[in-house]
Hints:
Elements: H1 2-28, E1 33-42, E2 61-67, E3 73-78, E4 82-89, E5 91-100, E6 106-116, E7 122-127, E8 134-142, E9 151-158, E10 166-171, E11 179-186, E12 189-199, E13 202-213, E14 218-225, E15 235-238, E16 244-245, E17 248-251, E18 257-258, E19 263-269, E20 281-286, E21 289-293, E22 296-299, E23 304-313, E24 319-330, E25 338-345, E26 356-361, E27 367-371, E28 376-382, E29 388-395, E30 405-410, E31 416-421, E32 426-432, E33 439-446, E34 448-451, E35 454-457, E36 461-466, E37 472-477, E38 482-489, E39 492-499, E40 510-515, E41 521-526, E42 531-536, E43 543-548, H2 550-553, E44 563-568, E45 571-575, E46 580-585, E47 590-596, E48 609-614, E49 618-623, E50 628-634, E51 640-647, E52 653-657, E53 662-667, E54 672-678
Parallel strand pairs: 1-7, 8-14, 16-24, 18-24
Antiparallel strand pairs: 1-4, 2-3, 2-5, 5-6, 8-11, 9-10, 9-12, 12-13, 15-17, 17-19, 19-22, 20-21, 20-23, 23-24, 25-54, 26-27, 27-28, 28-29, 30-31, 31-32, 32-33, 34-35, 36-37, 37-38, 38-39, 40-41, 41-42, 42-43, 44-45, 45-46, 46-47, 48-49, 49-50, 50-51, 52-53, 53-54
Amino acid sequence: MKNTIIRSSLLVRLAVLLALPIMSSCMQAVPVTADLTIMISSTGAERSTLVPEGVSLEVESYIISGTGPQESTFTVTAGGPTATVSGLYVGNWTINVLGVNDLGTPISSGSTTMLLTTEDNTVHIDLYRTEGNGSFTLDVSWDTEGLVEPMLVVYLLDAQEPEGADNPVRIVPNQGGGTARFSSQVLPGSYTVQFILKSAGVPSGGCVKVLHVLEGEHIEYDIIIIPQLAEVSGIMILQDHRSVPVSGTVHGIPDLVYEGIAMHLEYFPDSSPYYADDEVEVTWYLNGFPVLHGRDAYITPIRGFNQLDIVAHTDKQGSWGAVSYQFETLPYDLDQDLFLVQVLSDDFPGIELRGVSDVITTADGYVAAAARLSSAVQVYAPDYSGILTVHQTLEDPADGILRRVRSLDVSGCGTVLAAVTDDDPTVITFTYDQITGMYSQEACIANSFELGGTVIQMGQLSDVAFAPNHIDLYVSDQGTGMVYRFERAGGSLVPAAAVGSPAELSMDSPRKLDVSPDGSRLAVACHDNSSLHLFSLEAGSLVWEEGFSYAYNQTAGISRIYHAVFASPDELFTVSNDFLCLFTHDGDSFSQTYRLKESDFDQAYLAGLRAVAVDQDRVYVANVSRRGVTVFDRELDGSLSYSSFSPCGPVHALAVDSANGYVYAVSTSEHELYVFHVTD
C-alpha cells in the first residue's frame, strides 16, 4: 500500500511538471494591446466661389477606420480633429480617415501606415482630397455686340496641384451664338477656372471662378460674362461663406480708370482667430489672366471694359474669399493738361484724410495734407511715377494742439511747416530734419497771446501763410475778423501784430491768405462780406493798403470770395463762387483787369469755385459744383484761354509742384486727395 501511494505522488508531480510548459506557452500567445491617439489636420486650399447649393465644405465629423494585426479592425466616428481608440493590438496598422460634412458627404480623406507599440501610440494624418471622381458642367454666355470672331479660352487649374497643373482647354463657340459649354470629370477638390474672351485674337473680357467638386457629385452652373460699369465706393469687400472665413477689403479703386494709369490696389485681411495675416495668399486676375500674386498690386488695364477678380485663401481647408470688379478703362486725351495718377482716400488704411481741408507741396517734393476731422497732418513722399505713400503722420497730441487742422503752409526752403486749427485755436510750427527726413514740433501758441500788454483771445483760425524770409508768418482769424503776424525766434513764436477791420472797409470773416513773392504785400480774402484786402508788409509792418468789394468801390466778381493768390508781385488771381478774376498793379494801386465766368467760354467749367493755383504757364481752378479742375493757359498778353477740364471730385483746395510737374487737389466732402501729372 505504501509503495502505491508513493508511486501516485510521483505521477502527480510528473504531470504537473509536464503541464508547466504548456501553460507557459498559452500565456505568451495572449496579444499585447495599447491605446492609439489619432491627430487630424487638413492641408491644401479647399476654397470655392461655386459649390453645390446647400452643401457645406466644413467637416462636421471624421470617420476613422483601421486594419491591424490578426485581421483586427475598428471604425469610430469623431466630432473633432483628435480621437483615441483603446485596446488595439500592438503591431502594424493602416489608418484611414474620411472627413464628412453635416450631410455625410465626403469632403476630404487621408491615410497612413504605422507600427503601434506601447511607447509610440500617436499618429498624425493630413487630409487631402477624397478618392473617386466628380464632375461639373459650366454653361457660359456673353454679349457678342462689338466682338469680331469671338473665341472663349478656358484654363482649368488644380488648386491642390500648383506645379505642372496648367492644362488649358480651348473652346471655340459659334461666332454669333455667344455661348459655350465646358464639362469635365475630375478628382474631387478645388479648381480655378479662368475664362478669357477674345475678339479678333485680342482679350476683350473675362472672369475667374473658383469651384469645388465633390466625390460622386455633378454640379452645373451658368456663368455670364457681361463687361459693364459697376458702381463702387472705392473699396471692395471680400465675402466668405466657408468654414474658415477669409475676408478683407481691397482699397485703391479709383472713380475713373484711364488707359496707361496704374491702379495701386492693396488687400487688407480682416483679423482672424484661425490664421495669421501673413498666411493669406492673394492672386489678382485681369480679364481672366493672373497678373500678380501678393497683397498689393499695380495694375494697368487695357482700354475698354475689364473685369478684375481677386481670390484670397489660406492653407486651411475650407478657406476662401473672392470679389469681382467690372469697370471701363477710358481713353486718355493727350491734349488734356492733367493726367490723373492716383486717388488717395481716407478709406485706405494708414491714410488720414477725413475732412481733408488743405494741401501743400514742399521744396523737397513732399506733399502735406491737413485733415480737420482726423485732427492730423500727414506728409507723403512720391515715388518715381508720382505715386504717394505715407512718410509721416503728425497726430493730435494730448494737449490738443492739432485738433481740427484747418490750413497749412511751408516756408520757401521747405524747412518749416506751419499749421492752424479752428478748434482750440492753435498756431504750430514744425521743423524739418535733413538727416532723418522727418518733421518735429518747434513752437506753438494756443487759444490766446499777449501783445503790447493786451491779451488777445483767438477765435476760429482759418489760414496761415509764410513770408519769403521764412521768419514771419501770418494767420487769419475768421472768428474775430483779425489778421495776426508772428515771428519765429529761437524756437518760439513771438506775436508781432494784430490787425482788425480798417475804417474804410470791414474785414468780415477773413479766410485765405497769400503773401506776394517779393514779400511786399499780403492779400486777404473775406468771404462773408465779399471783400478783398491788401496789406503792405514793408519793413515788417502790417498796414492796410487798399480793398475791393462791390459795395465799397463797385468791384464785381468777388461775391463770396474764397481765395486770392499772387502770380507775381503785380498780379493777383481771385476766385469767388462763379468768377475767376485778375487784379494787376499799375505802379500806384491794384485794379481789376478782367473777370471770367462760365458763360464766357464754350466749354470751361467755372461753377462753385473754391481755390486757385498758378504756375508760369497755367492757372488751375478748383470746382465744387462741376467736380474737377479747370485749366487755363496764360497768354503772353496776360489773358487766359481755356485749355481743359479734368474731372475727379468736388475740389476744395489745390497745390502745384511746378518743379516736378504735379498738381494736387483735395475734396473735403469725399475725403480724397487727387494726384495729377502735368502734361507738356
